[in-house]
Amino acid sequence: MREVTNVLPPRKTFIETLKPWGVYDREAPFFMTSLRSFSYFLVPSVFWVVTTYGIYIGLGALAFFLERFVKP
């Protein structure tokens, strides 16, 4: 039998994990990476929350502006 050793990278400190920059994949295509985030809207629960809150906010804004600017 052959012994297998795992080589783990050194662990980052807590402060190092808070940095806004870091290692990123330079080979990943930019447009596919940006489009991948929109795939969350295809999840039914996320789609439901986004549409219902959008409707609530839109109707609230419409009621506010109609009351404020269209008074007889």
Estimated helix fraction: 40-55%
Please state the overall shape, judged from the principal axes of the Cα atoms.
Answer: elongated
Q: Whole-Å distance between the termini?
A: 90 Å
Average pLDDT value?
86
List the helices and strands in order: HHH
| Rg (CA only) | 24 Å
Number of helices: 3
Beta fraction: under 5%
Structural class: mainly alpha
Number of DSSP E strands: 0
Write up what this structure looks like.
It is a single chain. By secondary structure, the chain is an all-alpha fold. The protein contains 3 helices and no strands. It has helices at 14-17, 30-36, 44-69. The longest helix has 26 residues, at 44-69. The N and C termini lie far apart (90 Å). The model has no long low-confidence stretch (mean pLDDT 86).
Write the layout of secondary structure elements.
Elements: H1 14-17, H2 30-36, H3 44-69
Outline:
It contains three helices and no strands. It has 72 residues and is mostly helical. The longest helix has 26 residues, at 44-69.
Identify the notable features of this structure and list them briefly.
0% strand, single chain, 72 residues, mainly alpha, elongated
